[in-house]
Design goal:
The complex is a heterodimer of chains A (148) and B (180).
Chain A: H1 6-17, H2 26-35, H3 37-54, H4 66-72, H5 82-103, H6 112-128
Chain B: H1 4-12, H2 16-38, H3 41-57, H4 68-86, H5 109-121, H6 124-135, H7 140-147, H8 151-171
Helix pairs in contact in B: 1-2, 2-3, 2-4, 2-6, 3-4, 6-8, 7-8
The chains are: A mainly alpha (148), B mainly alpha (180).
Chain lengths: 148, 180
């Protein structure tokens, strides 16, 4: 439940003018505005600003970037497909599985370098695939985007 | 006239001329959006060029059932903010003409200039949000999808952005915002 204070009332009043239904009802907003002159002034000014901005248009552009873009395009699209990544991880998995078996041979001490092999291999695999396993992927996805 | 979907299919098959169709169709819109974020034409052109090159390399990941530009906008936006992060401060154009706003018959040129100046003094995210909402007319839902944040966040950010713009206009004694 949103608290009814000056800030939330002004925010909701402007949002409703933009066609968005906020947590505060129209009655709550109206009731607050009726008794708060500061909020009435604030909303009036913001409404004037919104109208001023709505009356503006973007400046039409005439520049072209194709010449520069064309010079820097690779010869072909990268063939970096999902199946290639999938295959690389299968190979890595099989290797690690085999490594585990070798490690289980009794009375064998391969030393510290042997222990580091899987870690180095995983680092090499991610470098080869140019993937950062610690990166939060916030790019290139627009769920449900159907709009311009 | 080739549609985007057909052009992208042809790009994937190695046809660069098809990509030209995409670039020429969206470059003007992209430059306008980049200027709103970066504040000047030169940086915007660099960002748009780089974004189209990134886009070409990522075409195998585009979802053809969705519109192209919102997908491209995410790439463009990433490019713009990456470029902006290398700048300490947004460098505004020194031109006597406005870069974002078109001169309108109903508004004095000085007022348009002043309004644009105030917009460019805002943080890049504020200017981006205000132009997408008011110049492109995107709804909260469209803004939320474009900027990858919830609609409630859009409401809050837009409110603060407008308040900051209102305060800047008041300081510039802009007609209607001073002395209230």
């Amino acid at each position: 439940m949103t608290k009814v204070d000056c800030e939330s009332v002004c925010r909701s009043a402007m949002a409703s003018e933009d066609g968005y239904v906020s947590d505060l009802s129209a009655e709550q907003v109206e009731a607050h505005l009726a008794e708060c002159s500061n909020c009435r002034t604030e909303v009036r000014q913001l409404r004037t600003l919104a109208n001023l901005l709505d009356g503006q248009k973007r400046r039409p552009r005439t520049e072209s970037v194709w010449e520069h873009v064309e010079q820097h395009l690779p010869e072909a699209l990268p063939t970096w497909s999902g199946s290639r990544v999938w295959r690389a991880f299968v190979v890595l998995g099989l290797f690690l599985f085999g490594y585990r078996f070798v490690e289980m041979i009794p009375d064998r001490h391969f030393g510290i370098l042997f222990k580091l092999v899987p870690i180095l291999l995983v680092i090499a695999a991610f470098s080869y695939l140019r993937e950062n396993p610690f990166k939060i992927n916030s790019q290139l996805t627009l769920e449900g985007s159907e709009t311009k | 006239m080739m549609d985007d979907q057909a052009a992208i299919e042809r790009c994937k098959a190695g046809d660069k001329e098809a990509f030209r169709h995409i670039v020429e169709h969206y470059q003007r819109e992209a430059i306008g959006h980049a200027i709103a974020i970066l504040g000047n034409r030169e940086d915007a052109m660099d960002a748009v060029q780089e974004a189209f090159i990134d886009c070409f390399q990522a075409l195998d990941r585009v979802d053809l059932t969705r519109r192209f530009y919102p997908w491209f906008y995410v790439i463009l936006r990433n490019r713009c903010y990456k470029l902006a992060s290398r700048r300490n401060k947004r460098e505004m154009s020194s031109s006597d003409e406005t870069e974002i706003l078109a001169p309108a018959a109903s508004v004095q040129p000085e007022e348009t200039m002043l309004l644009e100046h105030a917009m460019l003094e805002l943080p890049a995210e504020d200017c981006e949000l205000i132009t997408l909402r008011h110049l492109d007319g995107l709804s909260y839902q469209e803004l939320a999808e474009r900027l990858e944040v919830p609609q409630g966040t859009i409401m809050s950010r837009l409110h603060h952005a407008r308040k900051r713009l209102r305060d800047k206009l008041a300081r510039l004694s802009f007609n209607g915002f001073s002395g209230d």
